[in-house]
Amino acid sequence: MARSAALFAAFRQEQADPDRFYGTLARDTVAQLRSYTRLEGAVVVDVGGGPGYFADELRAAGARSVCVDPDPAELRLRDGRLPQSAVMGSALRLPVRTGAADVCFSSNVLEHVPDPPGMAAEMVRATRPGGLVYLSYTLWLSPWGGHETSPWHYLGGRYAAERFARRAGRRPKNDFGRTMFAVSAAEMIRWVRARPDAEVVDMLPRYLPRWAKPVVRVPLVREVVTWNLLLVLRKRS
Fold first, then answer.
1. Which residues have CB under 8 Å from 235's CB, separation 6+?
2. CB-hemisphere CA count at 13 Å for 126?
3. Which part of the chain is the Methyltransferase type domain (predicted)?
4. Would you give the end-to-end CA distance of the chain in angstroms?
5. Which run of H or E residues covers position 65?
6. What is the pTM of this model?
7. Is residue 218 scored above 90 in pLDDT?
């Protein structure tokens, strides 16, 4: 519970204090990832890693990390410089050869692409047989599904974005239909179960205590309560 409380407290500082938010999340995420696989010497592709917070923590854990992101502004967001080992490229067409990664990793990016299954398929493609895919994303019907436009996204994504624009005098960074899309737990769980080339290692609410894991098996309820769904997959031979 203490871990969950610390993470949710950090979320409130995402835009006001990104170093605190992303630093806290990156440390927690890498610790979680290490419970599934060895990182020392592993080649890790960080999909949509932006300014490199996750890549830095992965390297600190002994991994050889490459950060892939399509937006040069996001890559330079932290201090104006490109992160170490950064590569510009789309999550829907990763500039990575098939089977190159020991771990293909993505945190909170899937809801920002127009083709979530396509991005997930690219991550599986880039991973070697026996390698791990770590994929987490914010569920649309969760309390933070609309990001900075929440909770008005419950009345519709476009309505929430327009309301934000009227009040703030600018478009939201996470603009529904342009830089943010509605992704459900059900959609990606169906996708995972239909994949012949990947087996499920784990499915759980990423930010909640481990005992909350069974909620992922409850349709409809999971869309709200899970908040952020983590899918951990193993690439089949």
1. 124, 127, 128, 129, 130, 131, 132, 133, 197, 198
2. 27
3. 45-134
4. 38
5. strand 64-69
6. 0.91
7. yes
**For the chain, percent helix, then strand, then coil, each to nearest 5?**
40, 20, 40
60: left (phi over 0), alpha (psi -120 to 50) or beta: alpha
- How confident is the model over 197-207, as pLDDT tens digits? 999 999 999 99
Q: Would you tell me how many other CB atoms lie within 10 Å of the CB of residue 209? A: 12
Burial of 116 per CB tally in 10 Å (0-12, 13-18, 19+):
buried
Output the CA torsion sign for 108, 111, 112, 118. positive
pLDDT in tens, 44-68: 999 998 888 899 999 999 999 999 9
Q: Which two tokens stand for residue 233?
A: 């997959």
Q: How far apart are CA 174 and CA 219, in angstroms?
A: 26
Facing residues of 44 across strands? Answer: 65, 103
